[in-house]
Amino acid sequence: MFPVLSTTDVQITTLFQNNLEDIIIIKEAIGSNLFWPAAGVSTLDTLNVGRAYLIKVGEGFSVDY
Questions:
Q1: Which residues are registered as beta bridge partners of 2?
Q2: What are residue 14's phi and psi, to 5 degrees?
Q3: How would DSSP label each residue in 4-65?
Q4: Cys-Cys with 44: which of 14, 18, 30, 33 at CB 3.0–4.6 Å?
Q5: Which residue, among 48, 61, 54, has the nearest Cα to 4 in the 3D structure?
Q6: What is the pTM of this model?
Q7: Which of 37, 45, 53, 56 is nearest to 11 (CA)?
Q8: pLDDT tens column, 6-54
Q9: Per the domain annotation, does 63 fall within a domain?
């Protein structure tokens, strides 16, 4: 579970710009939108403040807001 702790919504490609190759899938915890680069699916582009997301990665990394 990955909560959005920033004060503004953030683009996935901006937040994970240094680790995009490690992202397998990101899905809304409550909802059906997802970011799944290997499958070419991107119905989720922005992570919203106050929401949480399920993220599966190939390699662990840290995120700084």
A1: 53
A2: -80, -50
A3: --SSS-EEHHHHTTTTGGGEEEEEESSSS-EEEGGGTEES--EEPTT-EEEEEESS------
A4: 33
A5: 48
A6: 0.90
A7: 45
A8: 899 999 999 999 999 999 999 999 999 999 999 999 999 999 999 999 9
A9: no
d(CA 54, CA 1): 5
In a domain, 65, yes or no: no
For residue 30, being part of any structural domain is answered with yes
Domain that holds residue 35: 2-57
Q: 33 in a domain, yes or no?
A: yes
Task: Choose among 7, 4, 9, 8: nearest CA to 45.
Answer: 9
Work out the end-to-end distance of the chain between its first and last CA atoms, rounded to an integer number of angstroms.
Answer: 16
> How many CB atoms are closer than 10 A to CB 56?
11
